[in-house]
Amino acid sequence: MPSDLLQSTVPPRNRPLRAETARPGRGLSTGQARRFRQLSELTRLELMAVDIMTGRVLDSTGIDSFQIVPGTLWRHLATTSHPRVVEISRKVLCCAIPLPEAEDCQAVAMGFAFREPCAPPSDLVLASVESGWSQERLNHWVSRQHVTTTELLRSVVDCAWRQLLLADEMQSLRSELTRSTERLEQTYEEINLLHGLAKNLQFSRSPLELSELCMNRLHGLIRSEGTAIWIEERRGGSGRMLIRGRIPFDELGLARILAGSEAHDWSQPLVLNDIERSCLGHDFPGLHNLAAAPIGDASRRSGWIVSVNLPRNRSFGMLETSVLGSVSTILGSHVRNLDLKEQQDEMLLSFVRSLVSTLDAKDAYTRGHSERVALVARRLAIEMTLPEADLHDIYLSGLLHDIGKIGVDDRLLHKVERLSADEFEAIKQHPMLGYTILVGLKDLRQVLLGVRNHHERYDGLGYPDGLKGEEIPLMARILAVADSFDAMQSNRSYRDGMPLEETERTFREQAGKQWDPQVIEAYFACREEVHALCANWRPNDGTLLSRSAH
Ligand SMILES: [Fe+2]
Known about the structure:
Blueprint: H1 30-43, E1 47-51, E2 57-60, H2 71-77, E3 84-87, E4 92-98, E5 107-114, H3 122-130, H4 135-144, E6 146-147, H5 150-198, H6 207-222, E7 226-232, E8 239-245, H7 251-259, E9 270-272, H8 279-283, E10 290-295, E11 303-308, H9 318-362, H10 369-383, H11 388-400, H12 410-414, H13 421-427, H14 430-438, H15 448-453, H16 474-489, H17 500-510, H18 517-525, H19 527-536
Helix pairs in contact: 1-5, 5-6, 5-9, 6-9, 10-11, 10-16, 10-19
The structure holds fe (ii) ion (FE2).
The site of fe (ii) ion has 6 residues, from loops.
């Protein structure tokens, strides 16, 4: 080993140098060969690629190369993990630059330079003889080597090494950038999908409708052969399987697949890749991979989302399961919210029933009036093509329109004789009393204007606010017609019910005066159904419409 090393010795890589392990025919890997050529271009040196285990020259960028380099050189230079320059004699320099590690080949790029023209040292003469070179060939080789200083050679080698490291780093950054861009695009599409779904989470959307939307968006995003969503149509009831693309199993098949994965931790989507070689693959020909996520948790599982058969070069992984998990969470939350809303509606209706029962108990003559007004008002609203949500509000408002009579003296409500002006004024307080009773109840806020203004007149002569025409809330204008119809048709303590012909003549005469002509027109358009509603109503039948029955 030369004693005049120019660089401090780098700790050896603890690799035994065993020439006997060299395998004939072993060459540079593709990566090593590329790096070897790059180093030669950057340093402008004739380089030899040397196997560090054997000293065998595997490749060369010059015209000539030794078959094997002197052991005193390669044994020393091969132990470095960084470029090194050594003086192998007073006038001859040798550099070694590690090539990338490969599975079955560890190599360095080795080059020579002369500090001044001179005869080669004995090591190189021996190597040339072992390689079968003539003296002339050796002289020719020497004449092609650069004449330089140690410092300059070291700078050139270091610069080439750093440039390649930078190139490696750039390549690594480019690869990471590509991966990040792909992840970003996927994340953007996922956010876009979730945003689109979030905008469609209205209570008016049934689980089936939202499932259809989810399935279409998921199918476009995951790009598998098939996407399916099995969803309960009603709580605890039967379900439906929606399919986009091709799914190689039916509902029963899906149940079998899921039953076979009972042990899976369903807090995460189920992923089955390489199905074809499994028993499942034999049972379901054409199924080669699958991802499934439950809709809802174990306490309220209302369906499943399944994606099957990605293109052959893809497997289900983090990206796909993340989207499936997010969409199933949204769908599960929507179903749970609909359940809660239904329970809330039922509670509200029970409360309204209690209030109506209390009112009915005060006046046997008006028993059922509230329910009939609610049914008639709702029918008129249907005729006027109002939306579903308004129908429910109008129905509730009809049930509660006279609730203020709870606060009116029973004797006035039951009085057979003609009421005095003061007594009539007392009864006229009931719309405001009803409003006052209900105004603190947030869930009944939507019915307040119907309760307060159902005794307004279209000509402005009504009470309590004296509103006129379309100043009167539409709900109240509809209730006014329904209320008057039932009141004129029903017996009271002080009079019998009015014949239908007379009621309808009054409607025609008072349209545009007492009542909104559009509502009167709606009445005449559906008069037979209105009559049937009232005729078919029976006391104590206890039938109040729930929202779901609408
Ligand atoms: Fe009233």
